[in-house]
Write a structure and sequence with these properties.
The chain is of the alpha+beta class and 530 residues long. The chain has helices spanning 18-25, 35-42, 54-68, 116-130, 137-142, 149-152, 166-180, 184-200, 204-219, 272-283, 303-314, 327-364, 416-428, 448-460, 499-528; strands at 2-3, 9-11, 45-46, 83-87, 96-99, 108-113, 233-240, 244-253, 256-266, 293-295, 319-321, 372-381, 384-394, 397-398, 404-407, 441-445, 468-473, 483-485. A hairpin with a 2-residue loop joins strand 13 (384-394) and strand 14.
Length: 530
């Protein structure tokens, strides 16, 4: 662990031979990694922890990086856990649910899904086809005498109230499991058989339903239905420019690529092999589903250690493969193309946002280009549980790690002006702290009154001129667009020539409103259930 003069950890690494590893940082000739020279300019102290073996060192390294977020380690900007479908075949009456944690608990997991829409579509199709329950076990017990609405809608076979035999319900779950593993043909044959039987028995309504399900089976987006069979694999590639590393993970399930994840990390100057090794440790941590095979362009350092760690997480053998020829190399090329396209799209988006922000400076006569914008909003219900939010946008994109929530403490009743003043005052008092740096533009959700309250808070705390300030108010009708108020100007701005700039401010305002309202609903719910 390398630390700067303030004692803050700026880099974390592991090594079998610590003396050799540390020596390499002081020998510029023998180290081709460009980030080393920058690291050594800031490093003032070195600390270390002794571990049992390389496997334990890998686990400790991941844990420490996650906790301290060192400057010279890769920080994933899309470091989220993707959702999967879980079918609890280990229960007497299995249920289908959504989860972000994959555990070795005897259930079958299917995923990951990087898009919530694909997951919902797949789950809905399973319920329509196989009428598998999705209720919690407590709800299942409550409906022992009468099934819930899902039974009446044909989305559940009602095992809770004995509407189906246990063996028959388990057979349906086995069909659902096969379907999620990619057995489309088997399910289609099963549906055709049931449709013919219903037709022969003159149950034409049932036959029509099976026909509709067959149609849904053909158009239900099964390219997004994935499995955790032994043919599963993830294909990982990356592209880099001077700003960032762009990692792409293709999820290959049931014989085809079903989805992908795009993850960005700041380019710290690390070489490709080191970046890949660090990415593997970060991406598959936090309960992500681990496939039996991971395809990479080149073998990472400590490959065996990573395989052992990943195998423990999966509960089965995991191989890291760097193919030289064949179909797997074609999959790597596909992943590399996606990584390069990801960089291209992001840079194009950044350039467009830059033009929009320059236009805003000109339209609103701001003192500087508003690269950093922070928007404040208040939410309450008849003056109760008043909350506030501050959302941060950097370069025209949300910076969610710097979102802040406020519970208004000194305001009684419904007084948005006083609420804005209290929230902004509390925010400004922490302006010197890390992650509380002042933005280029402070944006207030409201009109002249809210703007005046914000200006008063800024003046009282001695921050006048430190940042531009504006307020955005919704129009009173569809014909009247949103208006922007700035200090010292009687009439609001209506930037006709920079509609994209206005739309950006509206989007930031709407995000602040969403964030404040969510916190308000949480507090209101706690009050109701006390």
């Amino acid at each position: 662990m390398m630390k700067n003069p303030n004692g803050r950890i700026i880099y974390i690494g592991k090594a079998a031979n610590l003396k050799s590893r540390v020596r390499s940082y002081f020998s510029a000739k023998n180290d081709s990694r460009p980030q080393v020279s920058y690291l050594m300019r800031e490093a003032a102290d070195i600390d270390y922890i002794v571990s049992v073996d390389e496997h334990e060192a890998l686990i400790l390294e991941n844990s420490l990086i996650k906790k301290h977020k060192p400057k010279f380690n890769i920080q994933l900007k899309d470091d989220k856990t993707y959702a999967s479908l879980r079918l609890s075949m280990n229960e007497e009456f299995p249920r289908l649910s959504v989860t972000r944690k994959v555990r070795a608990d005897g259930a079958s997991y299917f995923g990951p899904f990087s898009h919530g829409g694909a997951l919902k579509q797949s789950a809905k199709l399973v319920h329509r086809l196989f009428t598998v329950r999705d209720c919690s076990n407590s709800k299942f017990k409550r409906h022992s005498s009468r099934p819930c609405l899902n039974y009446d809608m044909g989305l559940c076979s009602g095992p809770c109230a004995g509407m189906t035999e246990k063996s028959e319900y388990r057979a349906l779950c086995l069909k659902a499991e096969a379907f999620l593993r990619g057995d489309r043909k088997g399910v289609a044959a099963w549906l055709k058989k049931k449709m013919k039987k219903a037709s022969d028995e003159t149950r034409y309504e049932d036959a029509s339903r099976y026909k509709d399900l067959l149609s849904a089976l053909g158009t239900g987006g099964l390219e997004k239905v994935v499995s955790s069979s032994f043919t599963d694999r993830d294909i990982i590639e990356m592209a880099a420019d001077e700003k960032s590393f762009e990692f792409v993970v293709l999820f290959h399930r049931g014989g085809g690529v079903v989805d992908k994840a795009e993850i960005s990390a700041k380019n710290t100057g690390a070489d490709v092999r080191s970046a890949f090794a660090e990415f593997l440790g970060r991406f598959y941590d936090e309960g992500r589903q681990v496939p039996p095979e991971i395809i990479v362009p080149s073998e990472p350092e400590h490959k065996r250690t990573y395989e052992k760690w990943l195998s423990e997480k999966r509960g089965g053998a995991v191989k890291i493969v760097a193919p030289k020829k064949g179909m797997k190399t074609k999959l790597l090329r596909l992943a590399a193309d996606n990584a390069r396209e990801s960089i291209r799209k992001k840079r194009a988006g950044e350039e467009k946002n830059r033009d929009v922000l320059f236009g805003l400076k000109k339209a609103l006569k701001l003192s500087k280009v508003p690269r950093e914008i922070e928007c404040f909003d208040i939410s309450n219900t008849q003056g109760k549980e008043t909350t506030g939010s501050a959302v941060r946008f950097s370069g025209g994109a949300p910076d969610k790690k710097r979102y802040k929530r406020y519970k208004i403490k000194t305001v009684a009743g419904q007084d948005d002006f006083a609420g804005i003043k209290e929230m902004l005052s509390r925010r400004l008092k922490r302006a010197g702290e890390t992650s509380y740096e002042l933005p280029d533009l402070i944006l207030i959700d409201g009109g002249k009154g809210q703007l005046s309250a914000a200006v008063e808070a800024i003046r009282e705390l001695g921050f006048s001129g430190a940042a531009d300030i504006a307020a955005i108010a919704k129009g009173r009708g569809r014909e009247q667009g949103d208006s922007i108020y700035t200090p010292g100007r009687k009439n609001p701005w209506t930037p006709v020539k920079n509609r994209e700039g206005l739309f950006l401010l509206m989007r930031i305002r709407d995000e602040a409103h969403r964030f404040a309202l969510g916190y308000h609903k949480t507090l209101r719910g706690k009050r109701f259930f006390r």
